[in-house]
Amino acid sequence: MTLAVVASRALSGLDAPEVAVEVHLANGLPAFNIVGLPDTEVKESRDRVRAAILTSGFEFPARKITVNLAPADLPKDSGRFDLPIAIGILLASGQVKNDDIAHYEFAGELALSGAVRPVRGALAMACQCHAAGRAFVLPADSAAEAAVVGGAAIYAVESLPQACAFLNGLQPLEPFAGALGGEWPNYPDLGDVKGQSIARGALEIAAAGGHSLLLMGPPGTGKSMLAARLPGLLPPLSEREALESAAVQSLGSQGFQPGRWRVRPYRSPHHTASAVALVGGGSEPRPGEISLAHHGVLFLDELPEFDRKVLEVLREPLESGVIHIARAARQASFPARFQLVAAMNPCPCGYHGHPAGRCQCSPEQVAKYRGRISGPLLDRIDLQVEVPALTAEELQHSRPGEGSEPVRRRVFEARERQLARQGGLNAALQGEALETHCRGDEHALAVLAKALQQLGLSARAYHRILRVSRTIADLQGVETISRNHVLQAIQLRRVMQGGA
């Protein structure tokens, strides 16, 4: 045989299109060429593959070798094609014989010693491979991630000789069966937060309805503490949500950790992060922080310190739950349905409104500082609450607050009501579903009409108040939204500039 075809996968956003690795051996001067729009990493595989084949005890054909990665118009990146290229060369030269090669797909980077190194995006590739009805042969270090796909036939190999022995029928391999999940994370307890009853209540509402939250207050008042305790109030991911979240994380630089299966991601990028780091991008588009937080929490501390252009990119995904990345040669879409929690100081020095009167910022400085966050972005944040400084008496004599466990139970019950009523969380209600499930009594509607007129609410703010009111009612086990629910929802978004 002088021609061999081995199946593999490329990565394009969350998709993993099939790539046919075609290897042809011809007479002529020895040469090794790779075609089919490979990038630098793929072109460099020539040296890795040659060394791996020789050190593994095989003969490298002294012939003209042409490797075509089809389709030719699909860009190919990374070293994942090393293993299928090596298998193709050995098949074409007759050193590996397997009549069922069409039933397998391969991916893996080769070391010069013949060892197989892990690859990025194993989970996304395994999903597509399983859908195509093939078994997936990949590095042992990536097998646990790929095994997340239920029912997929995963074969883990440590080296090129082991993969060849398996294909030649000399060393049978059992399908890899990974263990998912581990112990539930030991989240910090909400009872550690002293005082701050309003902020604690807002955190519970945010957890129950999936709402975005902004915490504003002087340094050291517990804003970051509150944000860190939100994941501990949220239920585990469903199977569908866990698979979506894991697929996105598998494309990141750190990959997906099977031990965190069904654990909601918590991302906290530094305020020096660029727009590309936040939303994703690059010549080969990869997910950013907002996509890596899919079905989880994105915490932005020191919100005004982020570059304004960086913050503005949050506006669309906060509404749509998806981010579209367009480059000259590549386009990709990543899911980004995250729960935003942000924290900020009230002024540049941080002590505006502090009882000690330490702030020396002028009104113009305060307005300029808060103006770093645009009105359209603020309009998309459901809850905006103040976290005031505690007095010495409150710090020394206040009793421990309610712990996470009872709050978590109330959150779970409220979420169950929402899922039974509308099949999703209140924060995601749109259009007709919003009108149907967020009905208030006549007193509630009167308060909303008055707020719309006096506070100058936008239609978006109006609807967000309705959603928050619905969540407050769900926490209380009440079906109809009342006047008090609406008043509380309005009060929980009036910290910025004294209005909505």
From TrEMBL:
Q: Which Pfam families match?
A: ChlI, Mg_chelatase, Mg_chelatase_C
Question: What InterPro entries does the database record attribute to this sequence?
Answer: AAA+_ATPase, CHLI-like, MCM_dom, Mg_chelat-rel, Mg_chelat-rel_C, Mg_chelatse_chII-like_cat_dom, P-loop_NTPase, Ribosomal_Su5_D2-typ_SF
All residue ranges annotated as the MCM C-terminal AAA(+) ATPase domain in the record: 288-383
- Provide this UniProt record's keywords sorted from A to Z: ATP-binding, Nucleotide-binding
SMART domains from the UniProt entry = AAA (SM00382)
What the entry lists under PROSITE patterns is as follows: MCM_2
Q: Describe the family membership recorded for this protein in Swiss-Prot or TrEMBL.
A: Belongs to the Mg-chelatase subunits D/I family. ComM subfamily.
**PANTHER family the UniProt entry points to:** COMPETENCE PROTEIN COMM (PTHR32039:SF7), MAGNESIUM-CHELATASE SUBUNIT CHLI (PTHR32039)
Q: What is this protein called?
A: Fis family transcriptional regulator
